[in-house]
Amino acid sequence: EALEKEGYDHFMLKEIYEQPKTILDAMRGRISSKESRVILRGMEEYANRFVRANRIIIVACGTSYHSGLIGEYLIEDLARIPVEVEYASEFRYRNPIINEHDVVIAISQSGETADTLAALELAKSKGALIYGIVNSVGSSIARLTDAGSYIHCGPEIGVASTKAFTGQVTVLTLLALSLARKLSTISNTYFQTLLSELELIPQKVEETLKSSDHIKYIAKEIKGHHNALYLGRGYNFPVALEGALKLKEISYIHAEGYPAAEMKHGPIALIDENMPVIVTATNRSAYEKIVSNVQEVVARKGRVIAIVNKGEQAITRIADHVIEIPDTEEPFSPLLSVIPLQLLSYYIAVELGKNVDQPRNLAKSVTVE
Ligand code: G6P
Predict the structure, then answer these.
(1) What is the pLDDT of residues 308-340, one digit of tens each?
(2) Distance between CA atoms of 100 and 313, rounded to whole angstroms?
(3) Which of 249, 258, 206, 230 is nearest to 362 (CA)?
(4) Which of 364, 367, 368, 369 to mutate to test ligand 1, by most ligand atoms within 8 A of the CB atom?
(5) Which residues form the catalytic set?
(6) Where is each SIS domain found (predicted)?
(7) What is the secondary structure of 30-82 as a DSSP string?
(8) What's the CA-to-centroid distance between 141 and ligand 1, angstroms?
């Protein structure tokens, strides 16, 4: 096992550090900015069903559900196809309206999650095109679907998903870009800008990982708290949900993810000096609004840990801690901003002496309802 960890203390840390490579692997052979091309072979065969779809429904569980939410932002923003994202377990039992004009995408690392599999079977029986975004080759979901795209991340051992999440988001990004191209919903110039930027993401992830020591230091300060609030807006709202889930899963600290603006409708009542608030503030749009959300937290003595772009000033001046990450095009910001949140939960769990790779009560693959 020590050999398999390749010198890292835990599989989770190894998998976090693998992400520059696994994101590249998820893109390999599928994108060429020189040729101005994005190709997802699995989708090409059914391209007509996708471009004519009334809507795309994404079903998933856990971390995969969060990548699905980012998929919703990506596909609606870039390709202008309506998207709904549902927990597979809710979808399958609520008598959903679904027909042959819908495309249902299942996202699953293991390809074996019972609820996701059952949701797909239901969608298939109603005539929808069913598509998989899966890591495990030859898994039940991969076999059931009409078509799909593997994320090619290699085996993920840590129960708390990290590299599979960024692999899923990468494939969803390629899907959105490919559909945007087919539907001409974005300009050629913007398409080209996005492609060139996407090719830079692996090295930007590498750069983001360099904050590791600083994050370890912040972890020591937060580890004694019993609650934490994660905030984000737009593309970074699902990242807040994922950050909170990571913390819960491995450190057993209660955490909630919230859209930053929604804070005033509830969580703000909880904020005092005992509430760390982790804010992802790398958005280009609505940036001013996020600054004012942070001011609201500071005014109530909440402890702010902010993820910002290099050179940011307004939040940096008032936050307790900032983690600087490289700037990118907004649709790609989750691929960078989730990295510090993965590391933060990892270091907090290590500080607390928890079993990082095999947290209590959780399973890597949930094959029962
Ligand atoms: C379990 C795992 C999570 C995972 C979820 C969905 O809860 O512990 O890490 O996100 O299942 O799994 P899947 O394999 O379908 O992505």
Answers:
(1) 999 999 999 999 999 999 999 999 999 999 999
(2) 50
(3) 249
(4) 364
(5) 364
(6) 46-185, 218-359
(7) TEETTTTEE--HHHHTTHHHHHT-SEEEEEE-HHHHHHHHHHHHHIIIII---
(8) 13
Residue 342 in tokens: 């993965």
Query: For residue 3, which amino acid is it?
Result: L
CA–CA separation, 181 and 193 (whole Å): 13
C-alpha 110 – ligand 1 centre gap (Å): 7
Whole-angstrom distance, CA of residue 125 vs CA of residue 108: 20
Alpha helices (runs of H) in the chain, residue ranges in sequence order = 11-17, 19-27, 41-44, 47-51, 62-74, 88-93, 114-125, 140-144, 163-183, 188-208, 212-222, 237-251, 287-299, 314-318, 333-351
- Say if pTM beats, i.e. exceeds, 0.90: yes
Instruction: Decide: 32 and 78 in contact? Cβ < 8 Å.
Output: no
- Rounded to a whole number of angstroms, the CA Rg of the chain reads 20
Which pLDDT value is given to residue 285? 86
What is the pLDDT, as a whole number, of residue 158?
93
Tell me which DSSP letter residue 147 carries: E
Q: What pLDDT is attached to residue 48?
A: 97
From residue 185, give the alpha-carbon distance in Å to each of 55, 102, 176, 177: 16, 20, 10, 10
Degrees (nearest 5) of the Cα angle 139, 364, 276? Answer: 135
**Residues lower than pLDDT 70 in the chain:** none
- How many Å lie between the centroid of ligand 1 and the Cα of residue 244? 15
Is the ipTM of this structure higher than 0.95? yes
